[in-house]
Each structure stands twice: as structure tokens, then as C-alpha cells.
Structures
1.
Amino acid sequence: MDILKDYVYDIETFKHCFTFSIIRADGKHKKTFEVSHRKNEIDKILNCLDYLRDNEKRMVGFNSIGFDYPIIHKIMENRERLPKTGKALAALVFKYAQEQIESFKDGFGNTIRTADRFIPQVDLYRIWHFNNKAKATGLKMLEFNMRLSNIEDLPYDIHEELDDEKIDNIIKYNEHDVWCTLEFYNCSKSQISFRDDLTIKLGRDFTNDDDTKIGAEFFQMELEKAGIELKKYQGGKLVMKQTKRDQIDISECLFGYYKFDRPEFQAIYEWFGKQVITETKGVFSDIEEHRLGDVAKYAELEVKKQRFKQKPTAEELTLFKKEYPLGWIEEQELKATEYVFDSNGEHVMEYQLDSDGNPDISKKKKKARRAKISYWGCYRIATCLNVVINNLRIDFGVGGIHASLSETIVSETKSYKLKDADVSSMYPNLAIANRIYPEHLGEAFCDIYEGLYIQRKSYDKSTPENAMLKLALNGTYGKSNDKYSVFYDPKFTMQITINGQLSLLMLVDRLLTVEGLRLVQLNTDGVTVAMLRDTEQEYSSICTQWEKDVGLQLEFVDYSKMYIRDVNNYIAVYTNGKTKRKGAYQFEGLGWHQNQGGLVIPMAAEAAMIKGADVEEFIRNHKEKYDFMLRTKVPRSSKLIMRMEDGTEIQQQNICRYYPSVNGGKLIKVMPPLEGKDSVEDRELGIDTQWNVKTCNNIENFEWDIDYNYYIAEAKKLIIERKTK
């Protein structure tokens, strides 16, 4: 990768000011240009852009394909027709910016095709797939995760009048964002190099593709090589081939090798076989009891209620029972009561009784009352498809199968060992072994899939070829449920996910016949068990036979101990001493889109559980200040204030780094009134309300006035103490 050809840039567009800042990727040749009422440097901007174009340089930005570059492109395209004054030109560029933002509200937005760009673009936002809703991450959050010394957010409204001081601040902010983008560029060099290498080797531009798209694109190339047509003419237009379905009969998706001994698992298998679905999202959740069949005998169910306005009529009862055949009516006595009247309209009185059992009128108690009754229609649902075995709940869903012990420590002993078995490349191999494929791509899809799998094993794991092939293998399953993908066939999606769950369930069914074996975790493509050491040969025989029956391969590891909060949050210690961390216990290897605040908390919890460290001592002696930093973000429609004990309020920037402090104030999110409500008052929401905090967007403002009690309390919440017998 030649960093001398890459130039990092960013623009700021206000109604009365446009700035453009750029720096070469080695940190040299920094330039910032201004267009406003006080100066017009558009010629310098165009000269800079012409230099980049004529010398085959690249522009590197953050969300630049979706915002910055289309505006730059319009400026270059209309260079002969641009206004002459800086004020008018700034207003025009602002108009371009607003049109660009609006273009994304109804679709994919206005982007310039790669072939049409005047200057090649590298968009870090797209490379890291931050344009995916689940991974959406802005530059300010990256500044926090990169632990930059200064996190800056601009407080000015894009429409407001700008004096010289504000324009100067905009320029500083623009330069700050370019510097931060350059920092992230340096963190992204391996990803950029990987894409550059693929582009050269495969002759297709992968520069701004995220990992999933790279995998799908490469697979498409292999399909085309094999002569499989990916497009067809429809209505006179060339469109992408896909298989769209009005409904999917799950019985047609199931493989033929299933056999279960446990009645709970047989009930699940039979239930799947009876389903006909019209969509793939949320179809195995909130299932009413009467729709569960035999699964209801073994499932954990939750009671739902709906209130009747008054005692239900026979007609209302009939309608309720029709909708919920296993439902029932409950009467509930309310605290509110009503007086009881006699036939003359007088209050009926209650009296204490005398020794003969007659009312003693001298000892009047109170007016007689009759309780009000409310009526509720009740029914049970499974929040997700599940069965409970040995007090352990196994959940099923489109996302996979899940089960786990919770709030417990599981350890190997002289008699017991902890064994984990994961299916190797489960989803690709399910398709390969069982010859399933998106219908419009034909069975040759399986041959290509298998070829890629074999090809990947021939490359070292550290090579870009291995990485790319891994993406091709794993990304295809996800794309099969993407209505914008050539792999789209939701039946293929369901074949993979349901058979993956049932295949693992069949392994569990067999393993539970081993004497003394206990299920510890079950998670998408693997199963962890605690078993007697002298049953390991039996365990291995079952696994080997299962591999033959289903055409999949297992990979095994041994744990010495597991600290389990739940299926998504745990620490597993391998017998070689290395650790595997998930969820709340992760403090290394976190993704850029993940919250990396307060990392001293999981560090302290792990040290306490694994090494027997004292939590308070660990935290008080920890010297990396960034591990104490937390962050919060509020939208532009809201504001963030620091409220001090004396009532003073100090507005903060909307993206804010802070830490609990013995000398701080209360951090408050102030939101506008809800639309459609009578109240015109702003709404307030406290952040870490039990604690005083200090903001620390500039790390130079940090003082070691930490309120350690916050971190100690949070770490103790993560500590698992109960041991499984």
C-alpha cells in the first residue's frame, strides 16, 4: 500500500461557510481552504482536486461516498458556473449538502459510481460496514474508542449566522476531523491493503466493499466463471436473478436423517415440520400455547393478560376462546370499593356482635362495602420456541439455537472434564453436505461452495486469500436472506438455520445418554458439556458417529473453568491457561462499533475470579486512565447538560467522554417534549444518576479524582460466585 498516493480529507458545510481540509496520509502537506463572506478560496480547492486527479491520487474520507465526495463532484462538474462571491458559493454548497442528505431519506441516496468519479475514493465508513444499522458508528465514537486525547463536537447550528470567531472554530474542527480520520486510516491499513491486493488479483474493484460484500462478490465471480447466469430479462429489463417465495413449507426444508429419543426434542422436530411461514423474521417468537402442540408440555411459558372493560358477555367469551382456545378468565379484586345500599337507598351498616351474637348498635364499625372486580382474559405464550430439560432452557430461532447455565462457575475436577465441540464452518458445510442451494442458482452452487472450502484450507490462515475465502464461505448464508442480493432465496436461509439447530439438537440428544454428562452451553454451532473423564471414549464415539450421519466435522477444546453469567456473557479458561471472553467480560479484541468504555470493570472482575485479586485493590491501583473513561451520546434534537450541586447548568457537547468523580455534578440528557402530548416541557433523563461525574473530552482535563466506588460496584456485579455441583 502506497500511503503517498492517499490524501485524507473532510468538508464542513454551513449555510454561510464551506471549508475543505486535506492532508497526505504520511501526515505531510496539510491544507485547509475556506469559502465564506470573508474569503473565497474555491480556485485553490479546485487546483488541489485537479492535482489529485491528474496525478492518480486517492481521497480517503469517512462516509465520504455518501456525503463529502458527491458534493466535491458537483463542485468540479459545475466549476464554470459557480458563483463568484464566497457568500453565494457557500450557500450553493450548503444547498448541495442538504440535497445529498435528503437523497438518503427515501432510498440508497445519491452516490457517484466508481467509474464516474473524477478522483478515486477510499471510504473508511464503508470498509468497516458502519453503514449497517447494527454497526452504525460515527467518527466521534471512534475518537473515543481510539483513545484520542481530544474529542471534539461542533455546537453550531448549520443555519446560524457565523462571525469570524465561529468560522475560525469551524476550520479548527474541520482540521481536527481530518486528523482523527487519518488516525483511523492508520488503524485500517491492513483492511485497505487487503482490498487493494484483491482488486489487483481479481480485476474487480473491492476498495470500499465491507467484508460480507467482498465474500458475496467473490462467490458471484466464481458462479459467473462456471457459466451460471446471475441476471435475466424481465419486462424488457435486465434484472438480478432471485427466488422470491410467498410462503415456505418447513417440512420441505428438513433433512431426512433426524431421529430423537427424548420426547422434548421429538416434539420440537415435529413442530417445525408442521410450520408454513410467509416471512423469516420473528416467526419463532411469541407463540401462543395452543399453537405449540406437544412442545407446550416441555416449554417455559409466560402468562399474558388483556383486560375487559366489564364482566365479559357470552359473546366476548366466545371470541376470546376462539382466539385463545387454552385461555381462561381471572377475576381480580381492586382496592377501590363501592358502598352497599339497602332497598331504601340507605347505606347498609356493619356492627360488632355482642356476646349473644346479635349486632351491638352502640358499636358501629363502618359502612358496608363491596369490592370492585376487574376481569382479565389470560393465556400463555412462549416468548421464543423453547423446551426445558434438566432445568435448562433451550431456545430456538432464526438466529440459531441457544442454551446455557447461568450465574454459575463450572470447573473441571479429578472426575469431571469440560469439553467444547464446535462444528467447522457449519453453515457452508450444511449446504455442501446436503446439496442445498438457492433455487435460481442450481445445484452447481454446491460444487462451487465446496471448491471454495477446499481452496481455503490450502492457504495459511494469515494470508489474504484465506481471509477472502472465509468471507465468501460465511457471507453467502446471510446474503440468502437479503432481498437485494443475487443469493436471495429465503427457503435456503431456513434450510440452513433450522437444520443447523436440529442437527446440533440430535448431537445433544445422543450425548445426554452418556452417564453423568451435563449440558453446559449450546450456541449456534457448538456444544459444551461437563462429563466424567472415564466416559470420554463413549463421548468421542458418539461425536464420530454424528459426524458421519450429518456430514459435518467437529473441532474440540478443553476448558479448565467457565464463569457463566448467561449464554452471551461468560469467561472460559482453556486448560493451557488462555481465556475466551464474551459479552460483558470482553476488554480485548472489541470491534470499533462496540462500546469500549469502563474497561477496568471487566478487567477487575476477571482478575478477581481467575486470580483471586481483590476488586477494590485492583481498581484503585490501576493506572491506565483511559480504562476508566465512559461515554454517552445524545441526538442533535437533544442536549446534554452538567448540573452542579449549586444548580448551575453547563451545556456539554452531544458526544461526551466522562468519568464518575468525587468532585463532579449530574449529567442530564434534556429531550424535547413528545409530539402529540399536551406538555410543552422538556424531558430529562439522568445518566448514571446515582453518581457525580466529570466530563473529560480533553484528556488533559483529567484528574485522579475518580469515584472508585462506581467501578468497584460495577465490577462486583460481574463476579460469579455460585459453583455448579
Note: The two ends are 56 Å apart (CA to CA).
2.
Amino acid sequence: MTAEPTERSEEIREAPTTTIGILRNIGPGMILAGSIVGSGELIATTRTGAEAHFDFLWLIILGCIIKVFAQIELGRYAITNGKTTLAALNEVPGPIFRFSLGNRKIQANWILCYWLLMFLSILGQQGGIVGGVGQAMAISIPLTEEGKVYNENIARKVSLDVKKAEFANLGENALPGEKESLLKDISDMTMEIEKMGEVPKANDHIYWSLILTVAAIFLLVWGKFSFIERFSVFLVAAFTLVTIANLFALQSYDKWAVTMVELKRGLSFGFPEGSKPLITALATFGIIGVGASELLAYPYWCLEKGYGKFVGQRDESENWIRRAKGWMRVMHWDSWGAMFVYTFCTIAFYLLGAAVLGRSNLIPEGSEMIQTLSAMYQPVFGDFAQNLFLFGAFAVLFSTFYVAIAAQGRLAVDVGSVTGIVKLNERKRLIGLKWAGVILPLLSVLCYVFFPKPVILVLIAGTLQAIMLPLIGFAVLYFRYRKCDDHLRPGKVWDFFLWLSFAAFLVVGMYQAYAKLFL
């Protein structure tokens, strides 16, 4: 993916210095936000809130902020050296695996080998995400009569749990007749569910998953960087605004409002009882904010945006140093701006999950995940909640699936070139991306077809990504102290947070490995 020196010299450009000029040149971070808000925020974060209630708010915020330092270091190395992430990681010292394939010599170091394992789990994660989109569409537009009946049954059960939680949360200030009204609603809904009896499951969500996968393939084969960028921003912004409005509106309901006591508990670095919420939270840590897969993908988007070509071939001249510092400043704006967006969004999803799902004892899982998640919007939007949530779920999950597959396709094509399996020029790389846009979505949706449990698929990938974080942290420190140009070295405060980031990665990765092996 590294451009030729002649091409780079022709596209050298000075970095903008005005705020408007900088804002016009950001974009890679918004693409990350488009791939983040789906699996990390909508699925994993709300699941953590449902299990741990408010206790892990501090961990969620830390997970969003602490990774940006590693993200920027990876971007720094890419745009100043014109190298992709996998090419850079293959330079990190450590065990190297070599073998011959015909007349080609294949070489991959230890980090690339683990990345391949993580990459396979990410295909499952994307299968869980497109399955979630399929569930949303199956609820909105059931394709079979069985699907319509099944959706109605699950919706009643979710609404019943919300009503029971609402009754349990009634305090002394309940309005006259409010308890009696809720009890009557609970009784009527219970009788309706009992009358329906056992309703067989339907496969509408799988049919819709396959249909949406075909749609994603069309976009991946046809879409370009600018389209991916605009598509992500639009969909994420739409549902983020709805979710934040829902959270603020929830504060006007005494039964569901997030109290200062709960916020204080969430920010007090405490832990809930039992190991299950912690394991879920640490798996969530691997994918919320900038997850391991997004960290690795970010430099590719920076290079496609043109940052590396604008800086020019590294020659350490005064002009090159000035351009490098200028485009690094643009990248800082891009990274921190995106961090603000997805952190705010993550907090909103976590608090909704804790306030509504946690109090209702609803855990989003299996083919009922979307129905369960829609309960977060019922206290404010009532019967309209499901339709509103279905739009949002489609927006963020389909955006995530589309953007994440686009990113993974770039890494999948690049690993063949980095390891020596194939030799790629720009034309062949683009052809490879087209094929990746077909093959990867199909593999992903097959994961969901044969294992339709989206939350589990997402959390498995989150676990492997959490273990990948310390490997990325080690690589980042290597780039910082062994590969960084003297004129571009950051200060001591930056180094402190870089080491803090590595320490957090190490703790999370080690605990996840321990939990999976011994708990």
C-alpha cells in the first residue's frame, strides 16, 4: 500500500493551519467512529451496563480515552514512513516464522501470527453485527407469518419485564392509582403471553442477514473512501443524537432517572460482585472506543486520506519536518475529535443499559438481542420506542458492518504483500480489495447463520482484541523509542500517557488470558 516515491513527490502538500482548513481535512477518525458505535457501544457496552449496572462507568470511560495515544503513535509512524500497520508490525523484534510456498519465501513475526487469529474472530464479530441488523429488519418487516408471531411474543415478554421493573422502582411519591394501573397492565400482559403458549422460533432474521450482506457487498465493491467517510458520519450522527436525547429525557422519569449517587458509584473505581460482569467488561474494553481492530485500521484510513503522500518521502529536511509536523497536527485533531464523539456516545449507551436493562434484569443475547435492547427506549418513547430503535440499530449496525469489513479487507490484502505471499502493485491491490469486499462479508454472515448468537460472537472477538492490545502497546513503544524521528518526538507528558496506555493494555490482556484459561 506504500506509494512509490515519484507518486508521493507529485502529491506533496502543505498542511492547513487554520481551524476551517484542518476540519476540512479530517475524516479517518469519523470512519473509526462509524465502525465503533455498533458492536462496541450498542451491543457490548449495553450488555456490560445490564450486568454490572453503574459500577463500571469508570472502566468504560478509561477504555475510550486511553487508547487514543497508541492510535496516534501508529498514525505517526504510518504518515512519516508511508508504511501500513501490518508492514510496521512485521518490523517489531521477536520470534519470526519463515517457510517456503513454491518459490516464494513467506515471513511473518509473532504479532502478525496472532493478528491472523484475531482477524478470524473479527469475521465472527461482523457476523454477529449483520445478524443484529437482520434482527432489526425482521422485526420491522417480517418475511414470514411465523416471524410476525414470534416478534410479537418476544416484544410482549420484554415489555412485561420493563413493566415489572417500573413497578419495583415505584417509590413513595407514586401518583394515586399508579401502582394499581401497573399491576393491571402486568396481569393483562401475563395472561396474553400465557394464551399464546410456546411460539416456535422463526428464521426471518437469517433471511434478512443474507439480504443485507448482498447489499453490503454491492457498496463495498462500488464504494470509495469519500463515500465510506460520508456514509459513516451520517448514520452514526443520526442515532447518536437520538440516543443522547433519550438519555436526557429519561432523567424526567423518577423511576428510571440516573441519580448522582449512581454516577458517583460508577466513577469510584469499584467492582460489582462476581467475576462474570468483570469478564464481560474487559471483553468490552477490547472493542469500545478504539478497539484493537480499529487501532490497526486507522493508519490505512490515514494513508487513503492522503496524509502520508502529503508529507512526502522521508528525507528529514526542514521542509519535510515542517510538513510532517503540520499533518501530524491534523491527525491529532482527527483522533481527539473522534474520541470525543464516541466517548460521549459510549457513556450514553452504558448509562441506558444500566438504568433500564440492569433495573429490568434484561440481558441482551441470542436472537432476541434487538428486542431486548429496544427496551432502553420504552420508558421515554413508549410504543414508538421499538420503531425508533429499529431505525437506530439498522443505522449503526449496518454502518459498523460496512465500515469494519472495508477496513478488514484492506488488512487482509495487505498481509499477503507484507508476508511475501503475493506481490502487489496498486492495480492488483485494488482488485484484491474488490474480492475482499465479496468474500469477507459472505464468511461473516455464514458465522451468524450457523451460530446465531450475536452477543457471544461480539464478545469472543472482544476478548481476542483485548489480548491483542498489549502486543500493540509493545509495538507502539518500539516505534516511539526506536523509529521516531528526533524532530517529531513527543514530550514527557505524552510519554507518560503512552506508558499508562501500555500498562492498561497489559492488565486487560493478561486478565482476559487468565480468565479464559482458568475461570
Note: The chain has 22 helices and two strands.
3.
Amino acid sequence: VTSLLASGCSNSASSKKEADGANSSPKYELKNINFPLDKKVTLKFLTQSSPIAPKDPNDKLIWKRVEKDTNVHIDWTNYPWEQFGDKRNLELASGDLPDAVFHAGLSDNDILRYAKQGVIVPVETLIDKYMPNFKKVLDTRPEYKKLITASDGHIYSFPWIEELGSGKEAIQALDDIPWINKKWLDELGLKMPTTTDELEKVLIAFKEKKPEGKNDIIPMSFMINHGGEDPAMLLGAFGSGDNYDHYVVSEDKKVVYTANQEGYKKGIEWLHQLQQKGLIDKEAFTQDWNTYVAKGKNGRYGLYFTWDRANISGNNEDYVPLPPLKGPDGQINVARTNGYGFDRGRMVVTSANKNLELTAKWIDKAYEPIQSVQNNWGTYGDKKQQNIFELTSNGSLKHLPLGSTSPWDLRQKTNVDGPLAVLDNYYGTVTTMPDDAAWRLDILHKIYVPSMKATYNYPPIFLDKEDQDQLTQLETVVKPYVERKKAEWILKGGIEKQWDDYLKQLDKNGLPKLLDIKQKALDKFNAGE
């Protein structure tokens, strides 16, 4: 299906362009614009969407309503996700530019490169003059203005912002929650483990006593170096812990690399001991997502890791969160991630755009609170699709129970993503919080946040081009090396003997320079507070 959608999509996109002859709209000479316009006009945008979404974005109810409210028709060139990156880069390199790129998926490198080439234009003046909704977001949360401003003082892109809790209480503060089989603990008369030793004993019991009479039990499984599915969370019992990008920030605001700390070494050694005792899934170092999920759905895991158990073992209550464990030295810690509900490069305006005021006011509509909420999750009152929301009598949006429908699948079919802002103070006023998010925040608050020692984490700072290029270059050497050694040591052992050589190799690979760039940027960011 994907390939049919993909080819259908790209063919219609290219033939449409040949017919039109240009990717951008003519100059409409509109000033002091108020919506809806007296006469309909068209803007031409490049975008991407899920292969399960309508091929023409204008078939989505959200866009039908926006067109009615504004009298602006959007002529979309839409590619499916997996094709979009390449197609976008080709179009932006061709010189025949669209008016804007919506849901642009641009990295910091991309933004800075296209800005330097003059492919995309600065938008800070547009924000000040024509975008009261977005300006209000930036006034309410000045840190976002800092995060979208390049080192040359310009703003080149419109962000996606989704707040769900803040600081340690943010939903992204921990991604790899360990889920333990409570049904098996109860059947075997075992208490919830509170130390690394107790967990080991529990995993041995799972292996040897075969709860539910199962012969294919896997005491512990994970997907090594795979974000939320990695066992990094357990390493907090041995020191500063670990997370998916291996950076933490100390109490004196120093950037620390997790994977060269003494506690990391001890934690990896402990995981190797579990591996030697046959307590870790043999496929944990090679399996893909589908394999991991298939075994989870069959209830084979004693302990596994992921963001939300429904992804792996379905939405039953057999699995519950394993609390942070006390390590051999009595240490308990949960390392925070550096995750934020923030994407800098969600929309850009190109230098071919002859209708800047019109475009800016259209984008600003996406930052209206009620519109942002729908763009992010989906809408209400759809006669053809299941709805994410109902519109209440006071004009706010209430999340509907979705039954057995996957919230993610429904979002792909009905939301429009792109630039938006959902701030914490919208919950209870503009919208309710999604049930799965409220549930997860509650788990974090009660079980994990009390053991998060770190006051700070590393924000998504916008580096200058030179630093960004260097960082990217160094990361592509350092990170794969660290993650290859991590997998190898848990599987085969050897960390004790190889540790000194490993530290030397990290230095040789450029880790000191990497930390220097990160530190300099953090100091500068904090100085501007």
C-alpha cells in the first residue's frame, strides 16, 4: 500500500507542477489582511504526511475548516514520510521553490544551510508585525524565542511546541520505563524488587519457576541503543546513569558524558553478569521492533523497556512500572533525558514567496490555542472518521475515549501537525489532556521523579553553523563507537580489561572537543537567562 500511495502521490505532484510551470504563487498585492479574504487566493506549499493519511491534505476536515475560515486555498505538493526528505532537498536545490515548506522536518544543519544560501528567509519581522498568536506564545515562554533564534540574531523557522509537564515533571523526563510482570511476581509470591540484587533474584525465579507453566519465558528483554527500549534507566543504580544521547548536566551546570563514568562501567558489568546467567533475551542485541513487540504481545517477558506498555504488551495490567533500584553502594538515581516537546524546523518560508503578510497571518492561525490543539492531535465533528475530540458547550475540546483504536493511527489520519504550540496552561481551559499522557505523567510523578537527582538537563540549543557542523562530525564517530562497545560488553564481557583503552579511544575520537562545544553553548545559553 505504501508504495502505491507513494508513487501515486509523487506522480500527481510532478504532473501538477509541469502544468502550473512554477511552484510559487503570483503576487496578490494584499495588505492589512483580515480573514476571511473577500476573494479566494491560493498559496503553494510543500509538505509530507503519513502513508495512511489522505493523499490530498485538503481532504482532511481541519484543512477544509481553515480554508473556509481564511478563504486561502492551499495547493499542496504532498509526499509520504519515507520519500519526503529526499524530495524536499531536491525541490529546495532546484531553485523552483514553493511559497513555504509545511511540516518541513528540517534539522539545525538544514536550517542554517538554506538560510546561508538564501533559500529560506528570516521571519522575525513577520512575527512582530503579523503574528499576534505566535508572539503571545513567545512572550509567555521567552525560552522558546531563545531556542529559535540563530546566532546571527535571525529567526528562520516556525517551531512545533507540545508541553506536557515541565522540568523534571515533563513527560519526556524518562523515556525507557522498565515494565515488570506483576502477574508473575504475585503467582510466585515475590515482592517488587527494590535493589539490583533483588531484581536479579526475581529474574532467576522467572527463568527457573516458569510462571503460568510457560516454557518460553524471557526474564528480561530490550532493544540495545534504541531510545525508550534500551535498559539505560537501570544504570542509575550505579552513578549518574545513562540516557539515549549520553549527556547529563551536573548541579554546577557542567556537561557530563555518561559513558565514560566509573558508575557506567559498574552498571555495564552488572548487566553482563545477568547476561551470563541467561537472564537476558539472546535477541536483545539484534531484534527489530516487530520481533520485540511480537514476543511482548505473547506475554513472554518478565521485564522489558519502553515508553508505554501498550506498545509492547497491549493495554493489560499484567505489567507495572519497576521502581528505581538501589545499587550495591546504596545509590538510587534516575537519569533525566534531554527530550523536549519541541521541534525547531517545523515550517519555513522561501525566498520565492511574494505574499509574506498573507503567509505569516495564515501560519499564525496555527498558533491559535484551539487550532494548535487540533493540528496536533486531530479534530471533532468528523462524519467520516472517528474523532479525537468533542467540542464542549463552552467551546473547549474534550478528548474522547478511543476504545481499541490506536491514538497514533487516528492522529496520522486526522491531524495536520506542522507549526503549533500547546502550552501547559491550555490543559483544563482549551483542552483536556490525552488519557495516555495523563496516566504516564502520573507514573513519572509518583515513581521516578522523586529519584531524579539532576536539577538540569541539556536544552535543544541552536548552535552556530561552525559548531553544529563540528558537533555532527564528532558525534558520528563517538556515539557509534560508544554504543557498539556497550552492546559488546553486555553480551561478551571485557569492560574491566578494556576500559582504559576505551577512554583513550574516546579522547582520540574527539570527546573532549565535543564536550567543549556543548559546554560553551550551555554557558552562553544560561548567561542569556
Note: Residues 1-21 have pLDDT under 50 and may be disordered.
